[in-house]
Amino acid sequence: RWGNAGFPPCRYLLCASGDFVKVYSVNTEETLRLMGGHADLVTGIQLNPHNHMQLYSASLDGTIKLWDFMDGIPIKTFTVGSKLLALYAPASAEDSVFVVIPKKGERDTFQLVSVKLTKGAGQDLEAKELSVVLDGVGASVKHIAFGRGGAYVVSVKGVNLQVYFFKRKLLNRFSLSTVKKKGGDNHFSCVVCHPTEDCIATGHADGKIRLWRNFHHKKEYTYSTLHWHHDVVMDLAFSMEGTRLLSGGVESVLVQWHNESSCQKDFLPRLGSPIEYISMSSDGALCCTLHTDNRITIINSNLRFSRSIQGLIKSRDVKTGLVVDPRTKALVLNGEPGHLQFYSLQSDQQLFSLDIVQRQYIHQAGLKQSDLVKVAFSAQGTWLATVEESEEVTDPELQLKLWFYHEETQSFRLNTRINTPHDNHITDMCFRDMDELGDDSLILVTTGRDCVFKVWGMIEDTDPEAQQSMSWSCDFVGSYHNYQATNCCFSEDGSLLAVSFEETVTVWDSLTWDLKCTFCHPPGNIRNICFGRLTCSKYLIGATDYGFLCCWNLLTCALEWSAHLNVVVLQPDPLSEHIAAVSWLSKESSLFVFKPNEPRPIYIQRNLCKEKILLAAFVPRDEPEMISSEKYLWLRKSQLFFLTDTQELMTLSTKSLEERLTPSSKQLAVEESLPVTPFSVLLGKHRRQQAQEDIDLGKPVVHNKQEQASPAVKELLHTPAHVLPSASFLCTIFINSLLISKENKSAEEVADEVEMESEKAEDDSDEENVTEMEQEDTSHVELLGETTCKLSKSQEKELRKIRKTDYSWISAF
Amino acid sequence: MAAYKPVVVQACPKLGERITQDTLYWRGYKTPVQIKEFGAVNKIDFSPVPPYNYAVTASSRIHIYGRYSQEPIKTFSRFRDAAYCATYREDGRLLAAGSEEGSVRLFDISGKAPLRQFEGHAKPVHVVGFLSDKYRIFSGGDDYSSNLWDIPSSTEIVSYSEHTDYVRCGCASKVNADVFITGSYDHTVKLFDARTKSSVMTIEHGHPVESVLLFPSGGLLVSAGGRYVKVWDVLKGGQLLVSLKNHHKTVTCLCLNSSGQRLLSGSLDRHVKIYSTTSYKVVHSFNYATSILSLALSPEDETIVVGMTNGVLNVKHRKPEEKNEKSQKKRQPAYRTYVKGRSYMPKQEDFCVSKPVKRVLRKYDKLLRSFQSSKALDAVLEPPIMLHTPEVTVAVMQELHRRGTLRSALAGRDEKQVNLLLTFVARRVIEPRFTPVLVTVADMITDIYQPVVGQSAVVDKQFLKLKEAIGKEIDYQEELLEVLGMMDTLFATFTKKRDTCLEENKSNGLTEIIETNRNY
């Protein structure tokens, strides 16, 4: 989600991320400011070449905004109209900037246009004076560069390089051969221009860097080649004097070339993940690299690692699932390759990253490197089991590792490593969760595609001189008719183990390892199984491929009930008897929460989101929340989180509709959607504060209004004087804001308007989950004020009743 | 920015004996010296005073050997028939011995003829010993009696006839001058006090007692008989403390080391076992050529002497402590360089800047870090690594395979290097922990060097060797599978089958074998 970065006078780092522009302090790595206002992805940011305190940003919503980033306020907004894909602001252009827009009428063709920024008085301006400079350019920011003093512009696309000289109105085209020989690939990947000389540096798909000179002539141009990278050169950057050239790529090595010669080069290796962008500060003292895993690294001019700004690592594929660490209540999932990240939901930050694979990661495409696939915690969080495997399909290199939590160092220590625990992929793994019996009864069960499940137990080393007294070894190997074992699950008291073998669920006694009984619900393989908890511990729930949810009674060994539902995720709440099932049907995910002892669900949320939900986890709350609404009673003890296939982390908010519909509340959604970016972290914090405020506001009306008005005052006090409108204009707003609203409706409206503006950002990001009806309600209430509030409540109740009857469980099939 | 992570070498737990302090200590003896005696050696006794000569009783002679002498420095041979149990007095100046004709003789170390001769036993005397007051001798004979003799007057003080079978072993207490014990073939050990007329305590060993021993403290008693060594608590009235059964033939002799921390037992099964006297676990054991009859350990454990049934005396001397001369040659930096700045205690307001720890990488790691695959492989194919730590070589090969550069690292080698590689592969490919990796390596080598087969006799020979090794392994695995099949049928008949099909592979062997087979 990172866009582009720039260094104003070396103290701030600006970065486009999602719909926002973020301002970081270089020295403290803090996020100083979050500038939101764009309705879509910000595609480019450039410092105003004439005023270094100002910043241009362009977005896909077709606007260019001019910001004062020191104070974080928008100065001007220019509406261009079409999607803006990149933004350039060379110093030579007096009052215009260059943007890349899609060509009208043609798909996948883009053109570079210059936009004249009119000097109007107001804040919102139209910028319609477009003149096309170059046609058929690449859509990426990296494909266009402006030359020395803005005299020419260079664009690369495919194997073609075109240079346009502004003064002479001359267009030179150069092209390389498309033939791939000796693994060479001449496609351009990026281009930069020398700041003081007529020289163009281009990066290529095969890792070559070409330096072009003498390109004024169509024929007599020359180029020299620098080659170190073995894969695509992702970005290039010249130092301010042009003596050094920085390049980076998939290898995650930053290469510094001196004097454009290939013999003198320095390296900064092992930056963690592939480099996407490189940016130099204006005084040349610092440089920063943006990485694919949501990270910015700041590097000194002498190529020393200085500091990094780390977001929540977004891994390619969350194979481990969402696991909750019982000790810290942190969400545990794949982090960097081979690492496990512990992400605290309460404080919205990454707690730590645990190196599981402990091998050097080679940044090279097409390598089959081992990665983490399964994680399980024991009930107390003292033991952690991890499975890593290489990506080979036929003969995977498997390792099962068991980690013990070391109290002194407060981290996990490797206790036992088991090579090749199974002959084929491990499909599931679970600990026997027994809180009261302590470590002695702790056993681990793994199921594999090699048709067996294995039970691992702890053995104590009797030798007093041995370094560690505990280790793990295999206790029992079980199989059933040579079917592949797919899932395993322990009952709450640990006496029974359920293992699913393709179509069959087998139940085993965990003391003697005898097969007790089998359940089957053909057709279709078992996808998920889980035991009921607390009062429902006599039930076993299973979901099959062919869309059945079955509940078996373990006492009678018979099917209690079954339902036709394509369950993707089946997640029991560890603290209550509720079980959440997420179904995927015709492009929408729905959530059903039920107790195993009754076939009727206690909560249904249709159309949860458009994406497929892959994983879910119940995170226990620190203390049970007081929930007034009966509907959300099941969320009292723990919170439910989802991860969709687009890597968005979502949760269900528990507040009742009434609470959310109070006029002051702009928190619209039934669900709060948090994209997994550092932004979401911040945003989440912000939003939570907002929610907190809302609760505080609750009843006293007067207090409420004051709070409402305060943004206007705040705005007034915090905006720099030079951008404020005249005092006479502000006076009425200010005075109105201080009044008690019942007497003055217009004041409220004005205040609302101001507030709306400031909170627009949040509304935008709340995205699709808002149902239309609710939005209508909100606006309705806002306009009519207190008196209609009651009515809307009753309406709401009615609506909900209707909804309940409409979408009841029975109607599902 | 992360540091380079070195290659993980999979350590394999060492099978077999674990190296402990004890094994190191007891291995510190030179190769034994063998001395041929005239008959079975029934007793060896070290003089308690320097230079720690030892008396060896075999046949009708008593030989006294010096510490390093191979020839006896003195011989007492005035016995008509076999002599038994020559024992030194505490001061090392007198020697007492029993004999087949029933007399107990007392010799001066410097003289030749016996000083005293105690007559009173009707049958051969197999055990004699001095009480700790130095003036009395106890003896036990085949006439079932245990006698006590006074040296100055050469008269019998008391005679106990309480045993009901041959008395064959005995020991005097070092703490109390009146107390001694005897062990007999009637399965008992009896404790006598010279001041009383009868035995004070009787301990039932359960087997004919071959040897008894009192701990220096006098509180514990060790008896050996049959296959058992038993430790008794005398102060608790002869309660059994522990019973050790580590030999598979009769235990004939017992001995404590000089510190009293270890107990040694010799047996007819040709083993000497060393026990810890705290845990009573075997900490080490020695192996000898024939059955052991007697055993002695010199003060400071300098020498172990073992006498055997075929009359061979086995003498082991401790190796001299090796001195580190090398380190002395090196000029050490002055003491002040070590203490410089170390004594400074940081104050509370001080910022402590720790020195960065320099990580030492192995040669192959350095090469791998700079992506020099071929050189890294060369580095681990050097003989010291390849021979002693093959797991390192295999780990690097695996790492190269993971990086996808193994083929290029293996290619382009000359005859000598290919020979080296093939030797390694042929030797190690059958080890289960290396098999998966080395099979790939062997595959690649055959692929790469297929065109040049036949050009070098050495390489061809290695290829044949590899083929032979793999063929052997396959045969072996097939045999194992057969055995496993037989065992399964046996188990199947023994265990009651329930109607539910329940397979249980207790051994991991099956899966392993299948895996290995699939590789070929």
UniProtKB/TrEMBL annotation, chain A:
The entry's localization annotation reads:
Nucleus, Nucleolus
> What are the UniProt keywords, alphabetically?
Nucleus, Repeat, Ribosome biogenesis, rRNA processing, Transcription, WD repeat
Q: Name one GO cellular component term.
A: small-subunit processome
State the Pfam families in the record. Beta-prop_WDR75_1st, Beta-prop_WDR75_2nd
Q: What is its main location?
A: nucleus
* Xref: InterPro entries: Beta-prop_WDR75_2nd, WD40/YVTN_repeat-like_dom_sf, WD40_repeat_dom_sf, WD40_rpt, WDR75
One Gene Ontology term of the biological-process aspect is: positive regulation of rRNA processing
Q: Does the keyword rRNA processing apply?
A: yes
Quote one Gene Ontology molecular function term: RNA binding
Q: Where is the composition biased (Acidic residues)?
A: 749-776
User: What are the ranges of the WD repeats?
Assistant: 35-77
The UniProt record lists the WD repeat-containing protein 75 second beta-propeller domain at 322-647
- Region (Disordered), start-end ranges: 746-787
The protein in question is named: WDR75 protein
Q: Which organism is it from?
A: Erpornis zantholeuca
| Gene from which this protein is expressed | Wdr75
From TrEMBL, chain B:
Q: Does the keyword Repeat apply?
A: yes
Task: Supply the alphabetized keyword list.
Answer: Nucleus, Repeat, rRNA processing, WD repeat
Annotated compartments: Nucleus, Nucleolus
Q: Name one GO biological process term.
A: positive regulation of transcription by RNA polymerase I
Q: Which GO terms describe its cellular component?
A: nucleolus
Query: Does the record bear Repeat in its keywords?
Result: yes
| Origin superkingdom | Eukaryota
* WD repeat spans: 118-159, 244-285
Please tell me where this protein is predominantly located: nucleus
Q: Where is the U3 small nucleolar RNA-associated protein 15 C-terminal domain?
A: 344-490
Checking PROSITE patterns in the record gives:
WD_REPEATS_1 (PS00678), WD_REPEATS_2 (PS50082), WD_REPEATS_REGION (PS50294)
Describe its function: Ribosome biogenesis factor. Involved in nucleolar processing of pre-18S ribosomal RNA. Required for optimal pre-ribosomal RNA transcription by RNA polymerase I. Part of the small subunit (SSU) processome, first precursor of the small eukaryotic ribosomal subunit. During the assembly of the SSU processome in the nucleolus, many ribosome biogenesis factors, an RNA chaperone and ribosomal proteins associate with the nascent pre-rRNA and work in concert to generate RNA folding, modifications, rearrangements and cleavage as well as targeted degradation of pre-ribosomal RNA by the RNA exosome.
The name this protein carries in UniProt is: U3 small nucleolar RNA-associated protein 15 homolog
Q: According to the entry, what is the taxonomic lineage of the organism?
A: Eukaryota, Metazoa, Chordata, Craniata, Vertebrata
